[in-house]
Amino acid sequence: MEFGRAFSYVFKDPDWLKKVAITGLIGLIPILGQLYLFGWGLEMSRRVIKGEPELLPEIDFGGFLGKGFQAWVIALVYSIPVIILQLPLQLIGPLGASLQMDQDTFSYVMIAVSVCCGGLLLIYSIFLALMLPAAMGNFVSKNQLGAGLRFGEVFALVKAAPVAYLLVLVGNLLVGIIAPLGLIACIIGVVVTQAYGLAVMGHFIGQAYKEATQKLGVA
What we know:
globular, 219 residues, mainly alpha, single chain
């Protein structure tokens, strides 16, 4: 993994500012713009995986929108356990009221549910943060939505290169720190930092997938 390269490669494209700005502006379109951004970033993952020149993608609205939508479906499937674990936390209040629990009993039940579900949510969230980049890498490498949902293959990727996927997680956290800086510079800053952040994450995903497949001996 070349950690710094994921942040610096963007600026080696002579047209990086134009591409990032246009992509960021497209990202302002409600819903569709976010899907487009997701697909645009994953195109960078594909290029890294395939060893293609690391130039930022040109505009391909239909192509990146479709890729982003498929990636959203994959992310949604992986998020189902999160939704399920959150349900008890959302339902305990109304349920306690309907059963007319006394305050002490309700407090004990609330604590028990919060500890159990909260603990499981924390564990699964860490698991998800490692699995999802691998799923996205498998998806763009094979250009099949189903490839992102082959849980055995995806887990094998993470198992083969755990440090690489931990670095992806660290990179994601750093991008999360950079993105809000755009708010300081108002709309122009948001446009640039959001697109830049996804370009960085796309590169990280591609690098990690490439390292994992090399260790697994998969072409």
